Amino acid sequence: MTFGELRARVAADYTVVRPLPSPAVRALAVTPFAILALLAAPTYFNVRADATALGWFFTWGASLVQVAAGFALITAALRESVPGRSWTPAQLAMWIIAPLLLVIAVTFASASVSALPLGQGWWIVGLVCLGGSAAMALPIVALANVLAMRAYPTRPVIAGLLAGLGAGLMADAGWRIFCHYGEPAHVLSAHLGGVIIAAAAGAALPLTLKKPFR
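Structure (tokenized):
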């Protein structure tokens, strides 16, 4: 095929498409689900028993920081999904490690103020928190992946991983306000486990999507 024939074939198949908004603007689409994830558990169940001892900063304040970090991660995922705008390995490591360190920091900072210990049945509470926070993240994981696929990502699994981490942070932001047990052993297994499950789901979901969405 000559260059002229190639140009003619491309021209015959060419259609104008609407440019995608910036990653930050596109990330705003998850706002309703982020609000739902933040408010659902505290509203439906209750606020944790030691909320007064923790104060606003270590309850809603820390959770709002996690939501903001979740938005940043989803924005990073949507930038990663644009061909030619992939993150470097060092930047990716930062995006993956930073949210995990945030959960750890929030856990120990909150526990230094108040942490109700778990007694018998600790494993049942752990499974409830693990499954509940992971399930709350799944709608955000799905929507963020659809948004990422619309940009024709060259590394969809990485974009999905970042989106899943962001969704997991948002879900845990609400779940930690409801969960009555701030013991680090519980939070760093069950709650952080929910974040990791959301990240894994985000990485796996692109493999099931056969083609990008426009």
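Helices lie at 3-13, 23-27, 31-44, 51-80, 89-113, 122-149, 156-178, 184-204. The chain has a mean pLDDT of 91.
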